[in-house]
Design goal:
Elements lengths: L16 E2 L2 E2 L1 H23 L3 H26 L3 H10 L17
Helix pairs in contact: 1-2
InterPro entries: DUF4133
Keywords: Membrane, Transmembrane, Transmembrane helix
Protein name: DUF4133 domain-containing protein
Length: 105
């Protein structure tokens, strides 16, 4: 029997999966929660009413969780890195001279 309440599936040479989130998306969700906590604290210290702070952070937290799960299911473990790399590739390479094809410049 496991002493942990949460089950983290990790096989040999497999990425970490936690409640349906894969690999780096666990870190994205954790970072987003930390940002929301800092935002809540700063709004509360600034004097924004408590219920408004809770409502705004609750809505933002819900959107964060939905967005991260959506990205995790859409891209998978490495898909987002591949999509970002694909955007950086040029659509065409233009060469206006023949000097590129000569070894001796």
């Amino acid at each position: 029997m496991s002493s942990s309440v949460y089950k983290i599936n990790k096989g040999i040479n497999q990425s970490i999966v936690f409640k349906g989130l894969k690999a780096q998306y666990i870190w994205y969700l954790g970072a987003g929660v930390l940002v929301l906590m800092v935002l809540f604290a700063s709004m509360y210290i600034a004097g924004v009413p408590s219920l408004l702070c809770i409502a705004l952070i609750g809505i933002a937290g819900t959107l964060l969780v939905v967005r991260v799960y959506k990205m995790s299911h859409k891209y998978g473990e490495y898909g987002m890195m591949k999509a970002l790399a694909r955007r950086q590739l040029p659509s065409a390479i233009k060469c206006y001279g023949r000097s590129v094809f000569f070894w001796n410049k």
